[in-house]
Each structure stands twice: as structure tokens, then as C-alpha cells.
Amino acid sequence: MASKDAGTIEVLKVDHGTTGFCVLGLTPLILNRMSEKVMHELMCPRGKKTAADKASSLKHDPMAEFRSSPYIDPDSDGPTLIQHLSSAFKGALKSAALDLPGANKSQIGRLTWVNGERISIYGIPKIFCAVTRSADMNRTPDVRTRAIVPKWACRVDVSYVRPMLRDQVVANLMASAGITQGVGDWRTGKGSATYGQFELVTEDDPRFQHLIRFGGRAPQQAAMNAPEAYDQETGELLQWFGVESARRGFKAAA
Question: How far apart are alpha carbons 226 and 241 in whole angstroms?
Fold first, then answer.
């Protein structure tokens, strides 16, 4: 009895390309890195505070929360002090595929990646206090303090698998991600606000070049040391907090 020919398996040659993008923020970027205090509490919980514990300690330290909200580049020779996770841009890229015909989120997630672990963010940070809702059943209100960058820019290199994707397809996805998804906290893709939107520009765009020139590491460090309030509400709240915490005998970070 003659045996059947198993045949041959042909595998399409897989290659990859990389496209660099100059990203310019359209709306302010809210930075929301998990602080060391929160991570320490997750690793080694202290248990529920007693009434005496609550009365003898500050619930919030706005300046400390502000300074711990961005990712910081430890390299003193780095172009910026402030960074953002590159996974945020990949997440935006994937989610943008949901709203475009012919694109699939899971497929785009497999076929694209953003180079590097972190992206250097250019722009001057300010301190931003805002009311948020906790994730508990009652949606308990709280005030959170974070760094916000009103005008920002960065460079993002996106790699993709060929021939499944082409550079123009990736560019279209990236441009769509900037409008429909955004990055950072309260981003458009979450539906609650429109922060973190961006557009793609050319390297010689005057707005982009201005931020690259004047929004790097040194001015960012100065702004983190002596932050300016983002809006009037933040300024008034911080002024009240300073007076009230001193009246109660607490010393907050300067």
C-alpha cells in the first residue's frame, strides 16, 4: 500500500520595519505613576488605621505625590527628566484598531511594538490637584495630586511585522490613536475626559522644536523642585492645605 506524501510546509518569510514618529501633544498629559508609598503598602500592608493613627498623620502630602507621579530617568545625561512607559503608546495603537475598518486589536498587538521600555517626554510639568473617585462600591471621592504637562512632545519608534503591515498602515493607526485614545491618565480612550491626545508632526515643526529645545531635563528639574500650579483651583487648594496642615502641627514637603 502506497503511503501518502506528507507534503511540504511553506512559511512566509517574516521581516520587520521601524517607523519613527514625532509626537506633539494636543491636550495636557497627566502623569500617574504608582508611588513608592502605594507599592510598599501593596507589598507589606500595615492593616487598617485606627482613629489615633489617622489623627496623627497626614492623609495626603501634595508635593510628595506630585514628585512621585512621573517616571524619572535616573541617567543624568538623559535628554529629559520625565519619562512615560512605551507600553502606553502601544496600548493606544492597539485600541485605535477597534475603531478602524480592517484592523484587529489583538492582531495589531502581535504585529507591532514600541521600541524601548520608556519614552522621554519634553515639556514643563505643573502641579495638578483634582477630585477623583475611588474604585470602591460607593465611589468615594478623594483629591489626588499629579504632575501635568500642558504642552508636551516626544519621539516614538514603532516596529512592525512585514509584509502583514506597511509603514503607512502603522502611521494611520498612530495618527488615529492620538485622537481617539491618547496616553496618560484621564485619556480620551477611557471615555471620561480628553487628556493625553496627540498628533504626528514633522521633525522641523516649530512647536515640536520649541519643546525639544526648552522642555528638556534642566527646566523640568527646576519645575519639579518649585512647581507652578496648573490652574486656579489647584493654587487655592495648595494654599489652604499649607495653612491648615501648619495649624494642625504637620510639616508637609516643601
Answer: 16
How wide is the angle at C-alpha 129 spanned by C-alphas 217 and 87, nearest 5°? Answer: 55
Whole-model pTM: value is 0.86
Strand 15-25 versus strand 198-201 pairing type: antiparallel
Structural contact between residues 125 and 70, judged by C-beta atoms closer than 8 angstroms? yes
Q: Which three-class secondary structure state does DSSP give residue 246?
A: helix
Q: Residue 249 half-sphere exposure, CB side, CA atoms within 13 Å?
A: 3
Q: How far apart are CA 185 and CA 19, in angstroms?
A: 26
194-233: burial string, b at 16+ Cβ within 10 Å, e else: ebbbbebbeeebeebeebbeebbbebbeebbeebebbeee
What tens digit of pLDDT does each residue of 98-110 get? Answer: 887 777 888 999 9
Instruction: Please report, for the chain, the start and end positions of each structural domain, with discontinuous segments joined by +.
Output: 17-32+58-246
Q: Say how far apart CA 129 and CA 21 lie, in whole Å.
A: 31
